[in-house]
Amino acid sequence: MKKHICTGLLAHVDAGKTTLSEAILYTTGTIRKLGRVDNKDAFLDTYQLERARGITIFSKQAELTLGDTAVTLLDTPGHVDFSAEMERTLQVLDYAVLVINGADGVQGHTETLWRLLKRYRIPVFLFVNKMDQPGTDREALLSGLKRRLDSAVTDFTGVTAGTDGILSYSGDRENGEEFFEEISMAGEELLEEYLERGILSVDPVRRAVKERRLFPCYFGSALKLTGVEEFLKGFETFTAGTGYSREFGARVFKISRDSQGNRLTHLKITGGSLKVKSFLDQEQTEKVNQIRIYSGEKFELASEAEAGCICVVTGPSDTRPGQGFGVERSGKSPLLEPVLTYQVILPDGADAHVMLKNLRLLEEEDPLLHIVWDETLGEIRAQVMGQVQMEILKSQILERFGVEVDFGTGNIVYKETIQRPVEGVGHFEPLRHYAEVHLLMEPLEPGSGLVLGCDCSEDLLDRNWQRLVLTHLEEKKYRGTLTGSEITDMRITLTAGRAHIKHTEGGDFRQATYRAVRQGLKEAGCRLLEPYYEFILEVPEESVGRAMADIDRMYGKFQAPETGNGMAVLTGSAPAACMRDYQREVTNYTRGRGRLSLSLKGYEPCHNQDEVVEAMGYDFDGDLADPAGSVFCSHGAGVVVPWDQVKKHMHVQTPLDKRRAAGVDLPDRKEREDESSGAGVPEGRSGAGAGGGRSSAAGTGGGAGRLSASYYEDKELEEIFKRTYGEPKRSYPPGNALGQRTAEARSTGGLGHGTGSGQSTDGPGQKTAGGRRAGSSRPGPWGPDRADRKSGRGTGAADTSSGTEEEYLLVDGYNIIFAWEELSELAKVNIDGARYRLMDILCNYQGYKKCTLIVVFDAYKVEGNTGEAIKYHNIHVVYTKEAETADQYIEKLAHKIGPRYRVTVATSDGLEQLIIRGQGCLLLSARDLKEEVDYVESQIADEQGRLKSQQRNGKNYLLSHADGELREYLETVRLGNAGTSGRIDKEKP
């Protein structure tokens, strides 16, 4: 099967790219006469504007043959103002030929082209042109290419391949050895072959070029046909065919119109084949009427286009550049974008709306020509890349539509981004309408653009409504709050919404979505962004001081100047607003010797935001076209609620609060939350057990020497935190925090709290009416026992209000093991035994306290471990994932659930204690937990002893199981004296 290659010529302006395309076509016999740009008869300069200006404006196609290789050659624009046309072409290239001007070397736009080729992962051949001009230095040029582009750029001059597939070098032996050594460093396969056999074959070199590990470079002069034939032979030898799928696929890279006004869709077939009268996609309603194969101005009609073919189809009217069909996905968004905006001034009597419609046709053909209609001023504005594109646009309008327009003063295209994450909410509910939308809006890195996503349950909002919201997010360019500029570098995620089964219509969600975006932008605040240029400034050495001062004045940044041959080169970046007219100054103060090369770097924070905002005078509240408030229904009529009050009226619970709640509700956490935030503890999830091999004693953050955290150290730690960070986030009722324990309570063996519903004690060893020993009873971090809370008895009224709050105890497993002497000794013998012993102890403790208990063990050293959560009897056991310690897991979980639940963390890690206090959680040291466990075990033992004594008596009386107060009351009832009972009297008003 004949090899088919689609390649494109790319270059900085005036590098001789079109001249090289003429030389290639002439050398291969495609054309009989060698055209020239100067003579305005170049084969691929098919438009009058191109011939008149001597530059390429639109990409063109030519078909040629190299031996057994069929080549589709695409000539792309070199001027930076038409980079969008070039970038769209990159999506369909198999290989690229980067043309370098031998007289100038690597320019700023050349580096931009290299970044684009790297982004699209396109293999590259280099051709250094104009080597016939005086002053060109081959070695210096090659060194510059290696330094500024890639060290893998290699001079392939003199390299040929024999019939046996072995490479040979026609130069001197010494240079040949250097060449083969350099080539062999491009991969292990090449290195092994060279070391073992002392030769290199074509196939591995071809693979290295295909995988962008090697970049062949050739030198010559296209105008004089020098080096062109050698380049073509090398191109044929070192290119490999592309394998295509049998399933149909196609990618659109350009939209244009022919002289008859027919809409042309330029595309590449990336799989299967395309036939006339077929559909590009199942969703398409228009068939392909013609398939054209262009070469220059002329074309041939084809009945079928095979995979790898670049063709033009007529018929479809809703295609767009970058669109994919079949198995092909839509392409990446353009890296380059316009930075200047101009007012389109129409002649008297011209209809603005008709002209707007015509300009939309040009915008469709060039996606980086942005046409904006200003409703307030009633004027058309065009966003373009630069002055040259604006002049070409003016000529196109005159040629295509017969209207001579003018342009006003150019302004910078600013953008805005959000300052912090926020939830934007929108509600639209006039009478008989209903829609509510919640959006999570987050800032992204510069250059990220606008990223849309969905994280909404279908239980909240049906899938069709979710798609509709995403469509509304994508269909509009949203404006910021400072200047009304387009927003960028944000992620907007649909998190919740609500529709009405009867009253919701499609337009309702459009309104709710628009309002949600605007509300979020206003609440979080926006930051103004402006375009920045990367520049390469070459000036005489005596002018470098002036240049550095100018760049500093323009708020630019630059690297140390590189000097040589009487010239200095400055590279850096600066705001486009400051540098766009700087070329004239450079020409003046260097007397024509200086050169400035600019390329768009991207958008960064504006250097003079306040001045720009004041000058543009955008009124957010007065922008009635984009309201931020929401509409609610009240008494049968719609009521507008301002943006800063809408969250109080929302019908759906705030999704961010629901997420925090989901992070707490471990038994019911969804699987996707487990993956995103570590191993959870889902109810009923089974595992292989907490068995061996999961973790070791090392690195657990524990140790017997870390058993500190006495009462006085706790208080000191708390005071340090207060002085450094202020009061904790939440306060707890008196008597519940361990920090409120007194030294007197510790000396009596208790933790200092009330003893019941007004009952007093007769001493440390006496029992209360509730049957508990006053000296040893304690609420610990949990407050009074649940039995006391349910009966209304406890440590005071403050506890009654918090009795319904769910309680969590998080235990750092290995920290506790190595802090308790008994478990530490066991761990020296068997770490698994110590772990299971701790889990059994905590099971008993949880059974008495009735809290939700989670014990966390480090498993971060287990390679490939994804974390595991199991249910061990009545407690939850978590093994952390790889690279996550128990401290990190506990801190993350405490941060999520601390503000909403009563959480206690058991650890003796001093740093973790400080962080836990900052989350508003209670702290329990290893020593305190040991005391709590001992107390619980003593209570369990006492209860077991009491039950055993009753069993030895052989009798089981009802009153034997009642506490003292209840026994007294039941005895009075049995004797018929209930009416005089002290308990009943106390309950009377």
Strand order of the largest sheet: 2-3-1-4-5-9-6
In DSSP terms (H or I, runs of 4 or more residues), the helix count works out at 31
Taken as a percent bin, the fraction of beta residues is 15-25%
Based on Cα principal axes, name the global outline.
Answer: globular
Structure description:
- It contains 31 helices and 41 strands.
- The strands form 9 sheets. The protein has a 7-stranded mixed sheet, sandwiched between helices. Strands 23, 27, 29, 30, 31, 32 and 33 form a 7-stranded mixed sheet that branches. A 6-stranded antiparallel sheet has the order 14-13-16-11-10-17, with helices on one face.
- The chain is globular, with a radius of gyration of 39 Å.
- The chain has 989 residues and is of the alpha/beta class.
Helices and strands in order:
Layout: E1 3-11, H1 17-27, H2 48-53, E2 60-66, E3 69-75, H3 83-90, E4 95-101, H4 108-119, E5 124-129, H5 138-148, E6 153-155, E7 159-161, E8 167-169, H6 173-184, H7 188-197, H8 202-210, E9 215-219, H9 228-237, E10 249-257, E11 263-271, E12 273-275, E13 290-295, E14 298-302, E15 304-306, E16 310-314, E17 324-326, E18 340-345, H10 352-365, E19 370-374, E20 379-384, H11 387-401, E21 406-407, E22 411-412, E23 415-418, E24 422-428, E25 435-443, E26 450-454, H12 463-475, E27 486-487, E28 490-499, H13 506-524, E29 526-540, H14 544-553, E30 557-558, E31 562-564, E32 567-575, H15 576-579, H16 582-589, E33 595-605, H17 609-616, E34 630-634, E35 637-641, H18 655-664, H19 671-677, H20 711-725, H21 743-747, H22 786-790, H23 797-801, E36 807-812, H24 813-817, H25 821-829, H26 831-849, E37 852-857, E38 868-872, E39 875-879, H27 886-897, E40 902-906, H28 910-918, E41 922-924, H29 926-953, H30 964-974, H31 982-987
Parallel strand pairs: 1-3, 1-4, 4-5, 5-9, 6-9, 23-27, 26-28, 36-37, 36-40, 37-39, 40-41
Antiparallel strand pairs: 2-3, 7-8, 10-11, 10-17, 11-16, 12-15, 13-14, 13-16, 18-20, 18-21, 18-22, 19-20, 23-29, 24-25, 25-28, 29-32, 29-33, 30-32, 31-32, 34-35, 38-39
